[in-house]
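# nightly structure sweep
# worker-07 picked up a monomer target from the shared queue
# config: single-sequence mode, recycle default, output format = structure tokens
# input follows
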Amino acid sequence: MVSISAIARSWGTSRPYASKCVNHRSCPRTSLEAANEWREYCASTRPPTNSKQIAKLLGDDDSEGVSKRTADNPPPPSLHSLHNALEAAICAQEQAFCLVQEAIGAATDSKMAMLLAVHNRALELRLRAEAQYRQALEPQKGRHC
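# output follows
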């Protein structure tokens, strides 16, 4: 059995983070290879749940670093980036739904309210991403027919 400290050194992270992964997120301690595979699959693919990060993925960020879009000359949407944003929004909404389900009955009212708000925002962003993706697919359907 591999120690938590060895896993943390292998990952280049802190021992408390590795301990959290082992004790609360079911990272295996059988070997470093198994821990690394688990981390590659489970720890690095977590979709964002922060509404600002999701908005950035969907292209709703109007910060100064991003070139300004005009109503007369919008950039053509990239299907690849829209598809990635849609997948991230779907994952975020599904994760939020799982959190709400896990918390039912065990969480306080304030925590449930917060989790429901996160889920509702994730669902709203998912629906917006799906609408944008479908809208971007419309012109392509005409080309193939």
